[in-house]
Design goal:
The complex is a heterotrimer of chains A (119), B (397) and C (362).
Chain A lengths: L9 E4 L4 H11 L2 E11 L2 E10 L2 E10 L3 E3 L8 H12 L2 E3 L23
Chain B lengths: L6 H9 L21 E4 L9 H5 L5 E4 L4 E5 L8 H5 L5 E4 L11 E5 L27 E3 L9 H5 L5 E4 L5 E4 L9 H5 L5 E3 L3 H8 L2 H7 L5 H6 L6 E4 L9 H5 L5 E4 L2 E4 L9 H5 L5 E4 L11 H12 L5 H17 L3 H22 L3 H14 L13 H9 L1
Antiparallel strand pairs in B: 1-4, 2-3, 3-5, 6-9, 7-8, 10-13, 11-12
Helix pairs in contact in B: 11-12, 12-13, 13-14
Chain C lengths: L3 E6 L11 E7 L2 E8 L16 H9 L6 H16 L5 H29 L3 H22 L8 E2 L2 E2 L5 H27 L1 H7 L7 H6 L5 H4 L16 H4 L11 H25 L18 E8 L2 E9 L5 E7 L1 H13 L7 H7 L4 H5 L1
Antiparallel strand pairs in C: 1-2, 2-3, 4-5, 6-7, 7-8
Helix pairs in contact in C: 1-2, 2-3, 3-4, 3-10, 3-12, 4-5, 5-10
Classes of the chains: A alpha/beta (119), B alpha+beta (397), C alpha+beta (362).
């Protein structure tokens, strides 16, 4: 079979539009890859959503302040609960309307939100 | 039959010998590459601390003042990072693992302080070794420096910046410099030292063999023949396989190889060391002013040293310039901008050959081409297959 | 309507291979619901990015897991090389592919042994691991370590593997092919094994796609998803690779996928060794990753698709190194298959997604 060429695609997305954008992707047939949190600086995080269709990769970048609340995408992609709970436990980002919320006990860490920048 | 399909395997295993090793009665056999524990050749250590920087678990501690090298055996993860990053290659990976123990084991080695007499007498060791007090920052004697860039390439901490065009620059980043002295060892002109004031004094202290090299610009013909039988190209005839690879590589056809005999015409030889690198039996050495043998890996250092006495060869400065050019041109194969610059430089060399030495145009171009072909040393992996960006970074230094 | 009991399963359990905790809601021996809980082995390895420079980070990422170790080392190097825009020589790509496929063989043999142990067939378990020892000896001879190899670095490979060693590797693998075949025949043909695996834990194609499962878990349900079809890593395009797919969707199908992958890997290694070019195995990489340079790459690990993301900070430290391992994505599939199964089948189902919880939790 021919090798599929994969490009690096990073698309910025607004906080208010994340849910509808992900719903569009689901309708187009994309599969959820992963959700990753990055600490940009003391006040900002970046969350990267990765989607895959036919082995081609699409990444969405969401820049948010550290105390923002993000709409959960577990209603569209149920397996996202793993990543959202992990980001909640490590970074302290709140996800609203999650279908499976562990309430901070998913990762058993001795110090809550260890990745959150200390002021 | 579906019920006991594993029957055959079980019956066979009754009659085969056991797959287990009867340890500890039968000792374990280690493979050559097994990463067991780190060992050190204390004579080679220069206390530069590169191993300490490379170690991911901070298991190695190098104390320059006390001249000790110590490793916490239980922290070591046997990754070989230190072995790979050691500039004088004095660390080795031994195959046997550290024995289990109820206490943490820390092995400390005392590194002997010694001045390397035959080599440049610079502060290659810890500051404690230098009684003359040359504990200053690394300095370059700009009068003798030829801006060949060998020090920058050898520097394990990337602290040196050397450029020849558009202008001659030699710069050291004193914060990055770890004072390991590898650059001082590699410099073919002995221009480097710790604390510049000591430099002239050091030159006076050098061994007589070195002095022959110092006087080379003044005494051209003599230096070529001076330490008589040793200078120039020599072949260890016992090891030689008479394959003729050296003769093929020679750009000036100075070597003649026939059944059972090897001969070099020292007058024709321009000491570019292209033959040394091509020799499959490693039996060729290029001796310049009393330096030691040249295994293939040290060929660049050897060739750099050759560049200095190259000035005193028959074909004078133009040829000498040509020997310096091929090295830079090797890198330029990958970078077209640099290639244009070097092509300009080679054009100058050709002009020189035609004007000052009365060579015909075709003869001059032939010579330049031959030198370039001969200098394409095949054994340096880092020259081939490089991405353009990393090559450009290397040239910047 | 039976009585509902909640049985905590794990993280310590004689039959469970990995430290995962499941709260099983059980009604008369049938599992109605399962709630997973992980975090017992979280070491915070990704946070070490603040203290270890990018070369040392490769060692850290390699040690996330002992079974998938080569894949992690390769992925970390790929991500950093991509962020720094470094091209590595072709021989290094071939060597990495060969060692990765060797890693796949050893991982699947390990899994076959654990699967046999899962339903109590201990002699088969030990025979599978005995054959796996030959592969581990090959690793030690070529790279220096049986489990963690430390042979990938940013820019290529740290040591070259000679052509004689590669030919010997192919000979040894061909030598154990017959033994592997006789062992895997037991998995496929033995009646008691079939009773435990056929029809158990069925995951239909739609469910597998909905739950975004990866690896042999989803290939056993009829979805041809295999990242070796992309060109981001290795030289699979030149080796003519086709993914292995089974349709049934139960435990036996997933076992068959893994068994066939072992034989396919032996063929891929043989082909790669015959095609490997001469040349250097590393380029010298100097400098740091630029601030803001990022790279997202995916690899096909033995367990499925793994993500590696590196982001530079302008200094010798990285800003972020993210590893998303395949088991992380298969846990929802596990939860779904557990609904409606017998209590005695729980370890089989947990094993069938090939869990590697130390990868999941880093």
């Amino acid at each position: 079979m021919e090798s599929v060429h994969v490009e690096q695609v990073f698309e910025p997305v607004e906080l208010s539009r994340i849910f509808s954008r992900v719903a569009d992707l689901k309708a187009e047939g994309y599969r959820l890859g992963q959700i990753c949190g990055v600490v940009l600086d003391d006040d900002n995080y970046e969350i990267i959503y990765s989607f895959d269709k036919g082995h081609k990769l699409l990444n969405l970048k969401l820049d948010i302040p550290t105390d923002a609340e993000v709409e959960s995408i577990t209603r569209i992609y149920w397996p996202a609960f793993i990543y959202e709970n992990e980001i909640h436990d490590l970074f302290g980002v709140k996800f609203n309307h999650s279908e499976l919320d562990y309430g901070g006990t998913f990762f058993k860490v001795s110090e809550t939100t260890p990745w959150k920048p200390k002021k | 039959m579906g019920v006991f399909t594993i029957g055959k395997v079980l019956v066979d295993s009754l009659f085969k010998k056991t797959a287990c090793r009867m340890y500890p009665v039968v000792p374990r056999e280690w493979e050559e590459r097994t990463r067991g524990a780190v060992g050190i050749d204390i004579d080679g250590c220069v206390l530069c601390g590169m191993c300490q920087r490379a170690c991911p678990t901070n298991a190695i501690t190098v104390d320059r003042k006390a001249a000790t090298w110590s490793i916490e055996r239980m922290n070591c993860i046997q990754c070989r990072g230190c072995v790979d990053s050691c500039p004088p290659k004095c660390l080795i990976m031994e195959q046997k693992y550290t024995e289990p123990n109820v206490e943490k084991v820390i092995d400390t080695f005392d590194i002997p302080q010694k001045k390397k007499a035959p080599k440049k007498d610079a502060e290659g060791k810890a500051p404690a070794a230098d009684a003359a007090g040359g504990d200053g920052p690394l300095t370059c004697d700009e009068e003798t420096c030829v801006y060949c860039g060998l020090c920058a390439k050898a520097c394990p901490a990337d602290a040196l910046e050397v450029t020849r065009k558009p202008e001659k620059v030699w710069k050291v980043d004193e914060e990055a410099c770890v004072k390991c002295g590898v650059c001082i060892d590699k410099c073919p002109k002995d221009s480097l030292s710790f604390g510049g004031a000591a430099a002239p004094a050091e030159k006076a202290e050098k061994a007589p063999a070195e002095e022959a090299k110092e006087e080379a610009p003044a005494e051209k013909a003599e230096a070529a023949a001076a330490p008589a039988a040793e200078a120039g190209l020599a072949c260890a005839v016992d090891d030689c396989v008479f394959c003729g690879a050296c003769a093929e590589a020679c750009p000036v056809d100075a070597i003649k190889v026939e059944d059972g005999s090897w001969e070099v015409d020292k007058d024709t030889c321009i000491e570019c060391s292209a033959c040394v690198d091509q020799c499959p039996a490693n039996c060729l050495t290029m001796n310049v002013g009393g330096e030691g043998a040249a295994p293939a890996e040290e060929a660049p250092a050897e060739e750099a040293k050759d560049e200095a006495p190259a000035e005193d060869k028959k074909e004078a400065p133009a040829e000498a310039m040509m020997e310096k050019a091929p090295r830079v041109h090797r890198f330029a194969e990958m970078d077209t901008e640099l290639k244009e610059r070097i092509d300009g430089f080679l054009g100058e060399v050709k002009e020189n050959l035609v004007k000052d030495h009365g060579m015909s145009e075709e003869e001059a171009s032939k010579r330049v081409e031959a030198a370039l072909v001969a200098s394409r040393v095949k054994r340096f992996p880092y020259l081939m297959g490089r991405g353009a960006k990393s090559m450009a970074d290397e040239i910047k230094d | 309507m039976g009585k509902k009991t909640i049985i905590p399963f794990g993280p310590q359990h004689p039959v469970l291979p990995e430290p995962i905790h499941l709260d099983l809601v059980v009604e008369d021996e049938t599992v109605v619901e399962a709630i997973p809980s992980i975090g017992y082995i979280h070491r915070g390895l990704e946070k070490l990015v603040e203290k270890k420079d990018y070369n040392q980070m490769v060692y850290v990422v390699e040690r996330i897991c002992g079974i998938c170790s080569f894949g992690h080392g390769w992925g970390a190097c790929l991500a950093i090389e991509g962020a720094m825009n470094v091209e590595i020589p072709e021989r290094a790509e071939y060597l990495r592919t060969i060692l990765h496929e060797l890693g796949r063989i050893h991982s699947h043999l390990l899994w076959l042994g654990l699967m046999a142990d899962g339903f109590g067939f201990e002699s088969l378990f030990n025979h599978c691991w005995r054959v796996r020892e030959t592969v581990l000896d090959l690793f030690e001879k070529n790279t220096g370590g049986r489990v963690v190899f430390s042979i990938c670095k940013v820019g290529g490979m740290r040591q070259d593997i000679s052509d004689e060693n590669l030919k010997e590797m192919v000979e040894v693998l061909n030598g154990i092919k017959k033994e592997i075949k006789s062992l895997t025949d037991v998995f496929i043909n033995d009646t008691s094994v079939k009773n435990r695996m056929v029809g158990v834990g069925v995951l239909t194609k739609e469910e597998a796609e909905e739950l975004c499962a990866v690896g042999p878990t989803v290939r056993g349900s009829g979805v041809a998803q295999d990242l070796r079809l992309t060109d981001t890593h290795g030289v699979y395009g030149k080796l003519g690779f086709e993914p292995i797919v089974e349709e049934a969707g139960d435990c036996m199908a997933r076992t068959k996928v893994r068994i066939r992958e072992v034989f396919q890997s032996i063929e891929l290694i043989e082909k790669a060794v015959s095609m490997i070019p001469e040349g250097p195995v590393a380029v010298n990489v100097k400098g740091n990753v630029e601030d803001g340079a990022e790279y997202m790459v995916r690899l096909e690990q033995p367990r499925g698709e793994a993500f590696y993301y590196a982001r530079g900070a302008g200094s010798k430290f990285l800003k972020r190194m993210r590893v998303r391992t395949p088991t992380n994505m298969n846990i929802p599939a596990l939860v779904k298959t557990l609904q409606g199964c017998d209590l005695a089948d729980v370890p089989i189902l947990v094993l069938t997604i090939d869990p590697c919880i130390s990868c999941t939790e880093r």
